[in-house]
Model the fold of this input.
Amino acid sequence: MTPERESGTRERTPAGATAATRHRTPRLDQPRPPRRRYLPEWDPEAFGVMSEKIARFLGTGRFIVWMTVVIILWVLWNVTMPGSLRFDQYPFIFLTLALSLQASYAAPLILLAQNRQDDRDRVNLEQDRKQNERSIADTEYLTREIATLRLGLGEVATRDWMRSELQDLLKELEDRQGRSDRVVFPAERSERSPGRDTDDR
Done:
């Protein structure tokens, strides 16, 4: 194969291109390929739930009773059994190591459970604060609406007011009707002057 053919098969780069532009830049319209992880992966939520379960169990009386029973059996076994069956002699170094290991794991688990509880409490407090703000806003809105209705009702004719007005009108009509129905006797007619009659006409 000739050098010309080899150069023809190579990728041609534009003139003046540097080595930095020759590298392929990652495309933004495609997801980034997963990188290899050398550390073990775990689900933080599952780990947190497990830590809360352990912390709840460590804070119960059942755990204290079981731990006391195990320690008593441990001490009795290593004191009363023959020397060939004893696995932890009198200073009980292995028991001390086991209890220290348990404490060293229990403390971080309890702290993790407390942190998760604090996060939940913070979220609950934030939700309660927002709910209280909405309740206060709704109460203020309803108060303004009630005040507006009261002001509006002051200008509206109520049933009692309409009844009293109608009763007043009825009394006035009855008074007028009583005056018009009053009987005029002949003596009263004769007392009237003729000029008055002509004026009345």
About this structure: DSSP finds eight helices and no strands in the chain.
